[in-house]
Design goal:
The protein has two domains: 10-135, Response regulator (Rossmann fold, 3-Layer(aba) Sandwich), CATH 3.40.50.2300; 146-218, Arc Repressor Mutant, subunit A. The protein is 56% helix and 11% strand. α4 links the parallel β4 and β5. The radius of gyration is 24 Å and the shape is elongated. A five-stranded parallel β-sheet has the order 2-1-3-4-5, with helices on both faces. The protein is built from ten helices and five strands.
């Protein structure tokens, strides 16, 4: 089976059974992926991991700190590494719990190699997408931080679809002044159109307060 891989991609494997751990590691290396093996959840948590696209193949029923416990810890740490659970004794409540907490897949041993490799590809693609989105939001936040308080108000109201005259009425300024602010906002945010502003505002989670009443007043 072929698997789209990138040189930096890493698959973490946390499995207490040495033979299973070795076999899974050998399978994943055979498709060109890097692998890091761990015998316990504690060992995984203690190890510093490279900041690269990755996923975690995790035994659900580890002794001591279980796979589900580790998943919860990673959620609390705001980790976004996608998890593929494997278990020899899976049950429906356990799989539902794992999937609700964000797991990509829950495989019961013995599973087909292809099923695991498909899940890994899906998980790595998810992590790459998450990383791109996170980088974009970080870049947008830097642009947002460069705006003055008044420019932020203008940005929010523009994103809500208000016209310059409506924004002027909302902020108690002249329409000419708003045009100047709007031009600066577009330049600083590197926005080419209203659609760009709306998209940026959505990614930044900005909801312009009082915009609805301003729209009504301007009609």
């Amino acid at each position: 089976m072929s698997l789209e891989t990138r040189a930096a991609d890493v698959v973490f494997i946390v499995e207490d059974d040495p033979s299973v751990r070795t076999a899974i590691g050998r399978l994943i290396r055979s498709v060109g992926l890097q692998v890091q093996l761990f015998s316990s959840a504690q060992e995984f948590l203690r190890t510093e991991r490279a900041d690269v696209p990755a996923c975690l193949v995790l035994d659900a029923r580890l002794p001591g700190l279980s796979g589900l416990d580790l998943q919860q810890i990673l959620v609390e740490q705001r980790s976004t590494v996608p998890i593929i659970f494997i278990t020899g004794h899976g049950d429906i409540p356990m799989s539902v719990m794992a999937m609700k907490a964000g797991a990509v897949e829950f495989l019961t041993k013995p599973f087909q190699d292809g099923d695991l490799l498909n899940a890994i590809q899906q998980a790595l693609e998810r992590d790459r997408t998450t990383r791109v989105q996170r980088a974009e939001i970080t870049a947008l936040q830097r642009l947002w931080d460069s705006l003055t308080p008044r420019e932020r108000e203008v940005f929010s109201l523009v994103a809500h679809g208000l016209l310059n005259k409506q924004i002027a009425a909302q902020l108690g300024a002249s329409e000419k002044t708003i045009k100047v602010h709007r031009g600066k906002v577009m330049r600083k945010m590197q926005a080419q159109s209203l659609a760009d502003v709306v998209r940026m505002a959505d990614k930044l989670g900005i909801v312009p307060a009082g915009a609805a009443s301003a729209t009504t007043a301007g009609q």
